[in-house]
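Pipeline run #58 for the internal structure catalog. This entry was flagged by the ingest filter as a single-chain record with no existing model, so it goes straight to prediction. Upstream metadata was stripped on purpose; only the residue string is passed forward. Reviewer on rotation: M.T. Logging verbosity set to normal.
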Amino acid sequence: MIRKEMIAMLLAGGQGSRLGVLTASVAKPAVAFGGKYRIIDFPLSNCINSGIDTVGVLTQYQPLRLNTHIGIGIPWDLDRNNGGVTVLPPYEKSDNSEWYSGTANAIFQNMNYMEGYNPEYVLILSGDHIYKMDYEVMLDFHKENHADVTIATMPVPLSEASRFGIVIADEDKKIMDFEEKPKEPRSNLASMGIYIFSWKVLKEALYAMKDQSGCDFGKHIIPYCHSKGQRLFAYEYNGYWKDVGTLGSYWEANMELIDLIPEFNLYEEYWKIYTKSDIIEPQYLSPESFVERSIIGEGSEIFGEVRNSVVGAGVTIGKGTVVRDSIIMKGAHIGENTYIEKSIIAEGCTIGSNVRLGIGDEAPNKLNASIYSFGLVTIGEDSVVPDNVSIGKNTAISGVTDKGDYPDGNLASGEVIIKAGDVI
C-alpha cells in the first residue's frame, strides 16, 4: 500500500439530539441541507478540493442513510483502489463489542485502518458543520511551525466563548493554554474541532489515554499533548463556518443561502460542493405558480406560491398553497390551499389540504423548550398531517397523525404529537 502524506478521519456518528425529530431516524451528518445536499457533503468536498484522497468516515448512530449516501465515494471522486472513502462503523472484536464512547475513542478503535497507510499526518474532522476550508493551507501552516498538533480556530464573540473549547495563543499562534468550555474565557479563539496531528504524536496520545472513559479530543487528548510539552499551534480561520446543531441555526443557515448575495456561496466554480444526486428531471413551475427568492430542487412540481424558502428534490406543492420562510425536504407532498410559515418539513412527509402551519402567538414547547423553539414548526420524516388542521409555533410532529390527534382541529403553540414507537 502506498504511504499517504495525510489521511482524514471524519467523525460522523453523532445523533444530533438538539435537532429533535429531524434526527429521530437519521444521523445528523445525513440531514438534508440547501435543497440538494446533506451536511456531510461539505467536509467530504473540502477533502477532495484540498487534495486529500483517503478518508475514513466513522459512523455509529442510525448509519443507513449515511452509508447509502456515501456508497463507494463516486460523487466526491473518492472511489479509489488506493485510499478513497471507507465507512468505519464500530465492530465486534474477539474479546468484546464496544460502541464508540468519545471522539478520540472512535479514532483509537480504528488504529489498524490508520496504520495501514502509515501517514505522516492525520486530519481529524467533524461531519456536522457547514463551511469551506482548504486543509492543504492548514497543513502548510502545521509544517512551517514544526507543530505536533494544529487546531483550527476561529474568533467568536467573547460573550459566546464559554460554549467552545478556547485556546490561548501567543503572537506566533503557539498555544500556551487550552480550556474546554471555560466559565470565564481568557480568549475568544474557539476550537472548530478540526485538528492536524503528526501521526507519531497522535498514536502516542491515543494509547496513553485509551482507558479514559469517553475519551475525547477536547477534554483528554489536547490537554495530554499540552502537558507533555508538545508544540501546539492555532490555525486561525476567518471564513464562513456554521454549526447547524440546533433547529434555529439549521433554519438560519438554510435561509442565508437565499439572500440576494449569500454569505455562503454553494456555486463557486473553483470550490464545488459534491453530492449524490438521484433525481435528474427538471423542476416544473405551473403557469399559476409564483416563486420568489427560493431554492427549488430538481424534480419538484410547484403549483402554489413559494417565498424565501428552500425546497428539496421531488417535492410537490399544491395549487393555492403558500410556503414562506420554510425548509421542505426531498419527496414531501403538500396539498392544496395550505399555508406554511417558518416550518421545517423533513423528507417524505405528507401535509394535507387546507392546513395552517406556524400560526398564532408563540408559547414555550411543553416537551423540550430548549430544542423546539425559535418559533418553528418541526415535522419529522415520513410524517402525515391530515386535511383541515391548524398547527401553532414551537411545535413538533412525528408519525402518521389523523384528525383525532388534533382537538377541535388544532395543535396549539408549544404542543407536540409524537406517535408511539417514534423516537424523539
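catalog note: The CA atoms of residues 314 and 331 lie 5 Å apart.
catalog note: The two ends are 44 Å apart (CA to CA).
status: ready for reviewer M.T.
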